[in-house]
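Most newcomers find our protein records easier to grasp once they have seen one. Sequence and backbone structure share a record, each on its own labelled line. Nothing more is needed to start thinking about how sequence determines fold. As an example, a complete record with its sequence and its structure tokens follows.
=====
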Amino acid sequence: MTSASPIDVAVGILMKPNGDVLLAQRPDGKPYAGYWEFPGGKVEPGETIENALKREFVEELGVQIVSVEPWCGVEHVYPHAHVRLHFYISRDWDGEPQSLEGQAFAWQGALGVEPLLPATIPLIEWLDRVRYARQVTKIL
């Protein structure tokens, strides 16, 4: 059963200068356990999306987000929840990601992990345009 109004979720894409992005695997006990996603989590009442993202990255990965840029928003209805995903890209953070909640994670260039969380799949082509646009500009 899904909720009537969507749950706001802050989602972060850590992006290295070469375009690699960090994906995390959903841990056992959560819906879609074993699926890969961009890290993030629910926005708490009274919290801004950006602050939720920063909090989640400290809690899940031990990483301090220095700056982010809003990228896109997507609503998706899963069997267990209706979510409104707010995607942000960060190219500037402090620390190396650690598995603080027991989740696997992987830096990906050409995305090779499977399965991807359903709401993430349509965004991969858009993300590739962002990831590689700067590299193409530098070559030209």
In short: Confidence is low (pLDDT under 50) at residues 136-140. The chain has two helices and seven strands. Residues 7-139 form a domain with the Nucleoside Triphosphate Pyrophosphohydrolase fold (CATH 3.90.79.10). The chain has one domain: 7-139.
